[in-house]
Amino acid sequence: MKRLLAGLLCAALLFCLCACGHEAVSAPTLLLRYADNQPKGYPTTEAAEYFARLLEERTGGRIRIRIYADAELGDEISVFRQLQFGGIDFTRVSVGTLAGFVPEMVILQLPYLFEDAEHMWRVLDGEIGEELLGTVADTGVTGLSWFDAGARNIYTRVPVRSLDDLEGLTIRVQESDFMSRMIRLWGASPVQMPYGEVYSALQTGRIDGAENNWPSYETTGHYEAAPYYLLDAHSRLPELQLVSRITLDKIRALDPDYEELLYSCAREAALYERALWQERERSSEALVRASGCIVTEPDEKELDRFRSAVQPLYGGFSDPLQQLIERIRQC
What we know:
By secondary structure, this protein is an alpha/beta fold. The chain has helices at 2-26, 43-58, 76-84, 95-98, 117-124, 127-134, 177-185, 198-204, 214-219, 222-225, 245-254, 258-290, 300-309, 319-330; strands at 30-35, 63-68, 90-94, 141-147, 152-156, 170-173, 189-192, 209-212, 228-235, 239-244, 294-296. It has 2 domains: 28-149 and 238-282, 3-Layer(aba) Sandwich (D-Maltodextrin-Binding Protein, domain 2); 152-236 and 286-330, D-Maltodextrin-Binding Protein, domain 2. The strands form 3 sheets. The protein has a 5-stranded mixed beta sheet with strand order 2-1-3-10-4, with helices on both faces. A 4-stranded mixed beta sheet has the order 8-5-9-11. Helix 2 (43-58) packs antiparallel against helix 12 (258-290). The model is unreliable at 1-26 (pLDDT under 50).
């Protein structure tokens, strides 16, 4: 009798082990990679972590994402190329980078396109924003949501208080021919350079200045090497969360309902990033000013000179893109 009970107990245990093993096989987990060129603690990387937590929680742990910050997996261009063939699953990129792959995104690089932040979000959170997210589809990636990146301003090693002061200076820009044209129209010489090389280039005098937002200026320490900050607010370049099409197919295969879950988590992460961005802008500006940097705010007359100088950038687009510009302006 004891031997019979022992046998039944072993059989029951074996059944449980098999059942558990079967459950593990039927509930696979995707381990995915998310790349960002900003350091940990930056609004975009914080939002990436938030996105990863949301997706893991809402899929019951079946999708897990590891965040690689500080350009660990490469600069934005190399990361985007890896995204196209599934070498990387998610990333956050600037419109300036994406414009090299998606012609429609060039429009968002136009200086002084948006009147202010409210105007930009009316555009991007509406019909036009959805259309623009869809334009990346032909590159093998899918647009998920829009991140804030604030207004970009000029900063330099030498005093710059007006358009005339830019004459002859070398200014770093993103690896974008369009941005290079803007700098030339202001009388300066553009230098296309990866983000991670800017600090040393400023220190050694290889470049005289660069252009970026308050948090980037502060976080990178660029304000230490280029202490003159000109509030020209020449552009508001939003950023995008992207997923590889190959990864999206894997997520659909895991569970068809996860695709919509992915989009909803991305939208929530975008709102989270925007809130973090506003806080970071305020703290970065306060830190930079307290450090003794010289911050110059041009008057309206001087800003009109900056705007007038770049008007040639608005010409030469195809009719559909010209119509898109007008729709944005009227939004």
